[in-house]
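Design job #97: recover the sequence.
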């Protein structure tokens, strides 16, 4: 396989005090397929879950505050928040809450045309579920959006 990108995978490693609960929640409830699992000495265990395509979203403090305002209506995000793209944001949010996640903000449409909800989830993670309501190409035509370092302004 050849690629122009020298990085082949983004892997987020999270220490979970309640490992079994975290595996159950993210694998069995959220639905991330198990890619591999390993056990070692001293009860060392790890489960690697396939989260599909990975991106690294870097935001400055003003952007983080704006996203909190849009998704939640108040400051809430720690420095790290994990976002999962899903197909049915409303149903998936209900399923995660029923499985023990704490709802921080119910699904709502954002200015960038996605349906986002916010939850406090196992392993101390705050997560966003997002359902895209437009394609990337459609979004690129909106004011304030762009790619390759070019931003379209109103």
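Job complete. Output follows.
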């Amino acid at each position: 396989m050849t690629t122009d990108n020298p990085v082949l995978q983004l892997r987020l490693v999270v220490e979970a005090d309640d490992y079994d609960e975290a595996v159950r929640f993210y694998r069995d409830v959220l639905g991330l397929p198990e890619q591999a699992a390993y056990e070692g000495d001293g009860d060392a265990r790890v489960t690697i879950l396939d989260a599909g395509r990975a991106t690294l979203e870097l935001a400055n403090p003003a952007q983080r505050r704006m996203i909190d305002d849009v998704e939640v209506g108040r400051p809430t995000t720690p420095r790290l928040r994990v976002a999962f793209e899903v197909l049915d944001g409303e149903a998936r949010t209900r399923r995660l809450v029923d499985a023990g996640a704490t709802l921080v903000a119910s699904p709502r449409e954002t200015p960038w045309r996605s349906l986002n909800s916010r939850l406090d989830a196992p392993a101390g993670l705050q997560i966003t579920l997002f359902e895209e309501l437009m394609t990337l190409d459609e979004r690129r035509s909106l004011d304030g959006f762009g790619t390759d370092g070019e931003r379209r302004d109103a």
